[in-house]
Specification:
It is built from 10 helices and 9 strands. The protein is an alpha/beta fold and 315 residues long. The chain has one domain (3-306): Alpha-Beta Barrel (TIM Barrel), CATH 3.20.20.
Length: 315
């Protein structure tokens, strides 16, 4: 797995990361041994960037990762990113939350602590939680700070309150059919030498080729109420999937591998974090790196995906 530089930090991380929301009720990987096998397979394939969050399984994801890395003896080889939710951003709660993450992860320091979303319902001032995170950097409990699902205005606000460090990364929803981040967020990150971590890089599986207009997820599934999978929207999405299949056959790659490669070909600061519920899926995700789409194929996907409009109005 090719390594890339993590923005201004100079850290070397894998071009494709491992997202771990799946270690939760939401996606159903609640067996530790399965999670350990996934983590071990990712490591053996050269993936050294693992992203998790406090809310994934209410700490279960962090627990699995901490236990697996300790048992496998690979902690020093892995760059760990986790996230603190918006409702835990009072000054005291930031310290409590980081302490508990450190306990679950069985670590002395967290590589990247991200704010999962702004505290818009709780009205915690930006300077309060950013100041607390900077103190934790200065005390050696976290190494870098990242922001997840923040607009440019709030990223600027957060950076204005930092004195001894800066924001290292932004995490955003971004994939071949959800591209609004290209308008402001990605250019901003490029200019400021910040890494972009696309979550849902396969649009919750819509770009894997698994689903068709005749075979959509059940409503009870975590994907079921996502507007992408509404029949009217998915008819448009599936046109992109058909092109992914066509281009994939040219390279001997799956639709998901082509979709992930499209992302890392598009911009130099991208580290997508697809999830994996099995060793086979980890291997498939890793196969998205180590090659590059030809310009004509990248452009074909660029053009057809720009025509997709996801109607999110439901009432």
């Amino acid at each position: 797995m090719e390594k890339v530089v993590f923005g201004w930090t100079g850290e070397k991380v894998s071009q494709i990361g491992l997202g771990t929301w799946q270690f939760s009720d939401a996606w159903g990987v609640k067996d530790y041994e399965t999670a350990k096998e996934i983590i071990e397979a990712a490591y053996n394939l050269g993936i050294n960037f693992i992203d998790t969050a406090i809310v994934y399984g209410r700490g279960l994801s962090e627990e699995f990762i901490g236990k697996a890395l300790k048992e496998l003896g690979i902690r020093d080889d892995i760059f760990i990113a986790t996230k603190i939710p918006g409702e835990m951003l009072s000054r005291d709660d930031v310290f409590r939350a980081v302490d508990r993450s450190l306990e679950r992860l069985q670590m002395d320091v967290i590589d990247l602590m991200q704010v999962h979303w702004p505290p818009l319902w709780n009205n915690f001032p930006t300077y309060e939680y950013i100041g607390a995170l900077e103190q934790l950097v200065n005390m050696g409990k976290i190494r870098y700070i990242g922001l997840s699902d923040f607009p440019v205005e709030l990223i600027d606000s957060a950076r204005a309150y930092l004195s001894t460090t800066d924001i290292a990364s932004i995490q955003i929803r971004y994939n071949l059919i959800e591209r609004d981040a290209e308008k402001e967020l990605i250019p901003y990150a490029l200019r400021e030498d910040m890494v972009v971590i696309p979550w849902s890089p396969l649009a919750k599986g819509a770009l894997t080729g698994k689903y068709t207009p005749e075979n959509l997820p059940q409503f009870s599934d975590v994907r079921g109420n996502d507007p992408i999978f509404r029949p009217d929207n998915f008819m448009e999405v599936y046109k992109v999937v058909e092109v992914l299949n066509k281009i994939g056959s040219k390279y001997g790659k799956t639709p998901s591998q082509v979709a992930l490669n499209w992302i890392i070909t598009a911009y130099p600061n991208m580290i997508p974090i697809p999830g994996a519920k099995s060793v086979e899926q980890v291997k498939a995700n890793a196969g998205a790196a180590g090659w590059k789409l030809e310009y004509s194929d990248w452009r074909e996907l660029d053009e057809i995906s720009r025509k997709v409009y996801i109607n999110r109005v439901i009432y």
